Please model this.
Amino acid sequence: MAMNRLSICCLYALLSVLLGGGCGEGDRRSSAAKAAREGILLLGNNAEPQSLDPHKSTAVADGKIISSLLEGLVRPDARESGLVHPGMAESWEKNADATEWRFHLREAFWSDGQPVTSRDFAYAYQRLLHPAFGGRYVEMLYPLRGARAYNHGEIQWEEVQGVSTPDEHTLLLRFENPTPHLLQMLLHYTWFPLPAHHVEALGGMLDRRSLWTSPENWVGNGAYLLQERRMNDYISVVPNPHYWRASEVRNRGIRFLPIVNGYTETRMFFGGKLHITNNVPPEMLEMALSRSLREFCRDPYYCTIFYRLNTTRKPLNDVRVRRALSLAIDREALVARVVHGAGMTAYGFTPPTREYDAYDHSVAEMTQSERESEARRLLANAGFPGGNGFPTLELMTTSRDVQRVTAECIQSMWSRVLGVQVEIRACEWTAYKAAQQNGEYDISSSSWSGDYADPATFVGLWRTGAGNNCTGWGSAVCDAALDAADASPTTAGRMLKLAEAEREMLEACPIIPLYWSERTYMKSSLVVEGWYPLLLDQHPLDAVELRQNLPAEP
Amino acid sequence: MRTSNTNHGCSLWQDALQRLLRNRASVLSGIFLILMVLSCFILPLLPCIPNPNATNLEAIAQGSSWQHWLGTDHLGRDMLARVLYGGRISLLVGFAATAVSFILGLFYGMVSGYVGGRMDAWMMRAVDVLFALPFIVVVIVFSLSIEEPCREFTSWVVRYTGWSRDSVAPLLGLVPLFLAIGALGWLTLARIVRTQTLVLREQEYVLAARSLGLGHGSILLRYIAPNLLSPVIVYTTLAVPGIMLTESTLSFIGLGVKAPNSSWGTLIKEGADRMEVAPQLLLYPALFFCLTLLALNFFGDGLRDALDPRSAKD
Model:
């Protein structure tokens, strides 16, 4: 241990010499301190966004930027997940069974001075649902009456009853089924409006290559304006003077830095280049826990880490093979040793809550050796006793450190328990996303975080052919249970039906759940104010204030 | 009873060897290199060295102990085994890629210099063009484009020889890497060889051989090639460290060796990520790598001093 300390000291000494003088968090010359004086938040944001067009993106990192550029009917609370405040809608009312919601829009403007009207919302929903557009996240809008039929090309937009605009400042949303959790869903960027006049002027509704999201063309209604986008460097946004709450925006801009490597990111944080990081890599977690660092944050998170299996490929089309692969993983060891306890072993997909719990208790209660012998038996039944004749599969991960380490660990578990060999392919983020969505993988290391505080945001993924399903799996029973859940009048009944759908999915095992993750990151607690732990990680960035108590440079 | 070396006639090679042996640094380096190669290729065969890819989540990132001499990494894999296996791959890439560039460069330069004239001009312009391309970028593109054929070749080998995939795949997986590095590393060598050949072909003994009616092939093989060897050997020794560095650069950006196999480059990358938490993960592979590079450089230096004809018979 003493040796360890000494060598750490030596390394730091060497590093600080190399980097030209140590620069701690409080260093006045560091770029974080400079940005804090200017009121600009430096935020680690995982990866370069797929797109800033809300209808073309599915990644969490994109969502954070989009939510700062556009505002929906409601906006999130800074302290509590699930609490909403009026956004573009000044007020709203619903009917008794929550199938019809009427929103009254406020007097607000796009950043080019045009008023925001109910038609901008209807235009956005039509664009995402348009059968020729190919939106990825369409399921979010499926609760709207007629939305699915329109998306499948069965009816015309005029026949869709879900969205109507009685006048410029009223938006009427009608649903197939009761949607009491609608306000939660409205926080997601699929429900945001688009500047219809502007999108039309720059190529029209269906132009997927439209440049309306580039900084020089950007028009939005959110708290910020897109200022500059530098690929793999940063995306910077500045306050939008036309925003209706412009006077309440607490900072003077945000810089989103796409840093995939958690080690790099954490090192940048301690080198004074970031205010808030996106994630702490596993080993640093251990260090942060043992030294109880003030900057270290560990928040609960509605998120599952899992592997997708491509069920259209042999031998993964055999449910016995899929179950065997799942059972052979020692999740307890994985969570304890690789993730260092920042998570919970998962035997189901949706993180359990008070009212919802669908995970596989029978598997959870087995001992690991029982699971392993069951896995070997299943694999032998499937025709690969001891892994003989099993082809080498490819395990696709992003270049993210946790994912790579987890993959190596599971690779060795499969080899030891089942005699199954897999090759790890670490892909750059955009390539990874594309391969996953096109089904060009065998096994894909994935994660899913809830878009709203309801199990439907997890279970809904596994509808046959859903945009984020990507496994090729589907079952009529699961779909029927999901429909029944939507139709169910009571919350308890809905939960039961959702759990039924999830159990059906877990039985068929198109995915291997690994663990329910916590959110761990670093935050300059001396500088950043107005950032609180949130279960859904939907931080309203305009509420973040940068304390400027650090003395100015002469 | 030999009294003194100077009393006997001795060839250039014997003379060079003696001068090499007198250089203490290069002798030590040579011994170190031999030991390193032996330990990387033979030690892992012994049963006391565990499987470098076997994880043990009960013992992660431990310090040195009797069981794990160099400790364990972040997944509980034995560091000594990983460093030795990594060295195997790094050294193999270093030497194999050097061999590829040695053969290409020697042949190309010799033909260019010997034929001369317009042919020489064209061949050298081709080298100039290749020189103008950014080395790392071309290596990346080349190794990616021959990856697929090489993978097919691997499965072909597995199918027809019946060797286990585990033992073949890590080594054959490197073929694109050293083909790519070797296929671009020969340029400098080709130039050196060409210049030497230009000088040599005007020598009296070559003229004599030619006037006696010896064919071009025999002249190249018997008179020119042997006289080229000393600069070529020196250059090659000094090129190996450079190539090993290229391999580690490629592995560092994730294009070299595939996980869970390791080379010194990947080990150093993994260690660099974790240096605050477990500095030994960076220290050991970096130490092995640096010492080997240093030894190769010293040895190459010694060879150059020993083989330089101008410093002969001091």
